[in-house]
Amino acid sequence: QYLRWLDAFVANVVGTGFTFKAMPLGMNGVDSIDTEAARFLQYHFWRWSRSAKFVDITGRKTFSRFCRLMAENWARDGEAIAILYRTSANPYGFTLRAVRPDALDETLNNYYTSGNTVIRNGVEVDLATLRPLAYYFRAGKEDPQVTRIGSRNLIRIPAERVVHIFTQHDECQTRGIPLGHASLKKAKMLDEFDLSELVAARDEANTTGIFHAPADREDEIKKLNEDTAASNYVCQKSEPGTKYVLPPGWDYDPKTPQHPNREVSSFKNSMLRDVASGLGVEYACFANDWAGVSFSSVRAGTLAERDNYTTLQDDFVEMVVAPVFKAWLAQFLTRTIANPYVPSDFARLCEFEFQARTWAWVDPMKDVQADAIAVEHGWKTNEEVTAQYGGSDFKENCARLAEENAAKKQTSKKLHSAATQTPENPRFLIV
Question: Using CA of residue 119, residue 120, residue 122, residue 123, what is the dihedral sign?
Fold first, then answer.
């Protein structure tokens, strides 16, 4: 179930990725969107994010796959870390490296580097503002730029080059804790219960019965032990259809297995409900248990679960996707591929939105009708509905529909003209 939760977390928080919408301001402080610059940025960020050789320093992950790995680390380990690199290996001069959270030295704690800064769990922070200043990663002796602190070999990387996501529960917190920590104890108890039931069931299955000697004749057991042939006859492995002939007066007590008992399912379901509550997910889907589930109960549980995922999506965009885009844009504007835009355009070009994945309900027709009614009465806008269905932009959709309609009309005219035109040399005469 834990792996099922991890897969569901990644699929719901990241899914196939985030839809990027550039909204650069016009020149000279004009508030209207520069549509030409928007198309330019959207194309180049799409091109960069779709190439594993551009995105990942190892050349294995596109940006969506990189985000899925970050989301899994966040859920499993409580935090996810990436380092931003400038590089000449691709035309955008920018790439990422995912770093395991245990590479950040948590044993380096309460180490004061100066009167104004302190290292807490491997993160150097400003004492006055608690703003992260640098991160200290474990390193080997052969690594370049090693910082020695006591007996430790560390690499100090400035905070502006590090993307670090974790769920903060305290103002002084610098590191994360696993998102499933509230359910770990229950999950461990459930695992131990399964093991106990398995051991009990195997023990009872292996012990099919016990031979009993008559009263005052227990010494015959000793004789059986001394007589190998007799011992092998009485004490042997059970096989289907086997019958035993016992010495006069002896008895055989068969053992009927009692494990797994009838209460196993109800007990495990109760435990899994507690685990699902700790993980913040809907029980029926998490445990794959749909017994006694109604449409209304699943809907209520699913909506609550999706509200939680929406919050996590917002955190992921704020702490991972947006910082990566800002760093990409700053580096992109220094490259010739960005012409005619230059680094001084960063402020007006750095206006954007990332749309996370959305969810369809079991009855999409009713959802579409409800959205149409909401737009008609002004409760929603077409832009909001487009974003809700994962579209990029309502105005772009209208422009594309206009192009499609014009193409349809043009094609229809050509077909009509071809149908009504009389061939110069008809091969058949239709009367």
Answer: negative
Q: Which amino acid is at 144?
A: P
Residues with Cβ within 8 Å of residue 81, at least 6 apart in sequence: 73, 98, 99, 100, 101, 103, 104, 135, 162, 163, 164
Tell me the per-residue pLDDT of 94-127, one tens digit each, with 9 for 90 and over: 999 999 999 999 988 888 877 899 999 999 999 9
Identity of residue 428: F
The CA-to-CA distance between both ends of the chain, in Å, stands at: 75
Mean pLDDT over 328-351 rounds to 94
Q: Quick check: 132 and 120 in contact, CB under 8 A?
A: no
Cα dist from 179 to 41, 64, 76, 77, whole Å: 35, 21, 7, 8
Banded model confidence at residue 375, pLDDT cuts 50, 70, 90:
confident
- Helices 2-13 and 63-77 pack at an angle, to 10 degrees, of 140
List the structure tokens of 8.
């569901």
Cα separation values, 29 from 32, 34, 325, Å? 9, 11, 22
326 and 25 Cβ atoms separated by less than 8 Å? no
* H/E element, 209: strand 209-212
What is the rounded average pLDDT of the residues 312-336?
96
Residue 79: C-alpha distances to residues 174, 176, 320, 347 (Å)? 10, 5, 11, 30
Q: Is 140's pLDDT higher than 80?
A: no
Concatenated DSSP letters of 162-179: EEEEE---STT--S---T
**Buried (b) or exposed (e) across 408-421, using 16+ Cβ within 10 A?**
eeeeeeeeeeeeee
Cis peptide upstream of residue 343 (ω within 30 degrees of 0): no
Instruction: Provide mean pLDDT across the span 249-277.
Output: 75
The residue among 282 and 248 whose pLDDT is bigger is 282
pLDDT, mean of residues 178-205: 81
Which residue reads 């068969």 in tokens? 254
Q: Is 419 helix (H, G, I), strand (E, B) or coil?
A: helix
Cα 431–chain centre separation: 70
Pick the most confident of 157-171, 268-282, 378-392. 157-171
Give the CA angle between residues 113, 114, 116 to the nearest 5°: 120
Give the pLDDT confidence score for residue 420 in this predicted structure.
65
Instruction: Please compute the mean of the pLDDT values over residues 130-140 and round it to a whole number.
Output: 89
CA distances from 397 to 46, 382, 401, 402 (A): 18, 11, 6, 9
